[in-house]
Each structure stands twice: as C-alpha cells, then as structure tokens.
Amino acid sequence: MERDYNTTRPSMVIREYGRNVQNLVEYALTIEDRNKRTKLAFIIVSVMQQVNPPETTNDEYYKKLWNHLFAISDFKLDIDYPYEVHKIENAEDRPVHLEYKTNKIHYRFYGQNTELVLRALAEREEGPERDQLLLIMANQMKEMYINWNKNIVGDDVIEEHIKVITKGRLKLAEGTELISSNVILKKLQSNLASVKPSADAKRAKPKKFVRPKPSIAQKPFKKKHK
C-alpha cells in the first residue's frame, strides 16, 4: 500500500485546522457540481468549528471560519458563501482555542460536530465520494482520540466508534489502513517540544562572564656571579 509521508505533502495554509481539513478542502475543489461543493463546504466548516470550538457563536465568528475556508482553498473555492469572503494577507490569523460546551454526545474527545458530520455522511448516497470523505473523517477521529488519551489506538476501535455514532450505517472499506498511531504521537510530541522548554533548560542558569586575568610575564633568570 502506498504510504503518505509529510515530506511529500503540500504545506498547510492554516495549521490550526490540521491536515485533514485541508484534505477535505482540496477534495471539494475537485467536485464539479456547485451544489455538491457548497454542501461539502458546510460540512468542512462544521469540522473547523469542532477543531476550534467557540465559547459563544456570532456572525463575526462564522464569517471568520468561512474566510479561513476560502484561504485554505487558495481563494479558489467557488460556492454559495453565506457570508462575504475576501482574500486575507495573513492566513495565520489563528482561531482562539476555547473549551468544549457540555453536550450529550457518545464520545467527548470527538466533539458533537464530528458526530453531526458522520450522520450527514450516512445520509449520502453510497459510492467512492462518500468512502473518501469517511476515510478523511476516520483519520481525523484517530488524531482526536490520541490527542485526548495520549495513547495509541487500533483502527478497529475507530471503526467501532463510527458504527456506534451512525447506528451501523457507516463502516470503513475492507482493508482500510488509517494513519499510524506512532506517527500521530510523534507529531504531538514534536509540537509539545516546540512550545515547551525542557526541564534541563529551566534548571540551567546562565554562566557569569569572568574576565580572564592578564598573564604576568616571567623575568628572565640571571645567574649570580661570585
């Protein structure tokens, strides 16, 4: 099976939403039907909202999400936008990470919007398009699970969670391999290392500068004459 390595992937436009959101946007650009593109765009924005959930929602927040979606598509996604979008100079305008609201959901670490997206996928017609979207969501869920539990998880667990959430209407294609748990853990550890100083660095004290003493030239030895 062909492997997907970071070195072969295009750079992410807005890192806070993750690789899977960007993959969804790239997939949306390939859909010819405008109505289908627009429907998928609403699903993608739901995922973006789940990744960076707000404490309160308002027009400014949703406008920001749609503008970020437009930016991730390199300003090429042609859909019926519910808000006015425009090109932004700084695509790294980072959404503020806020705590989840308490909602009755099956698995807290996935969030309510993930369940809504999966149920929406379950309503779609079976075919390669739905399978591709489900694969992207399954990888996203695996990253969420490991990020929450800080432990590896098998693909069978993710598949079982998908079945529970959709009441058995969705399942991964036979032989599907999700992103490796070790790859996700390494990425998380790398992200933590880049923002947190190590314990040794915290304990280390800067060395004081000591000016070197000038060397004293030795006087030549003179032999005394008797």
Structure description:
With 226 residues, the protein is an all-alpha fold. It has one domain (7-203). It contains 8 helices and no strands. The protein has helices at 18-28, 34-51, 59-72, 112-123, 128-149, 155-165, 181-195, 199-203. Helix 4 packs antiparallel against helix 5 (128-149) and helix 5 (128-149) crosses helix 7. The longest helix has 22 residues, at 128-149. It is globular, with a radius of gyration of 27 Å. Mean pLDDT is 79; it is low at 4-8.
Roughly how many Å is the radius of gyration?
A: 27 Å
* Strand proportion: under 5%
What's the total number of strands? 0
How would you describe the shape? Answer: globular
Structural class: mainly alpha
Helix content: 40-55%
Report low-confidence residues grouped into runs of 5 or more: 4-8
Number of domains: 1
Number of helices: 8
Q: Can you give the mean pLDDT?
A: 79
N-to-C SSE string, H for helix and E for strand: HHHHHHHH
Helix-strand blueprint:
Elements: H1 18-28, H2 34-51, H3 59-72, H4 112-123, H5 128-149, H6 155-165, H7 181-195, H8 199-203
Helix pairs in contact: 1-2, 1-5, 2-4, 4-5, 5-7
What is this structure, in a nutshell?
The protein has 226 residues and is mainly alpha-helical. It has helices spanning 18-28, 34-51, 59-72, 112-123, 128-149, 155-165, 181-195, 199-203.
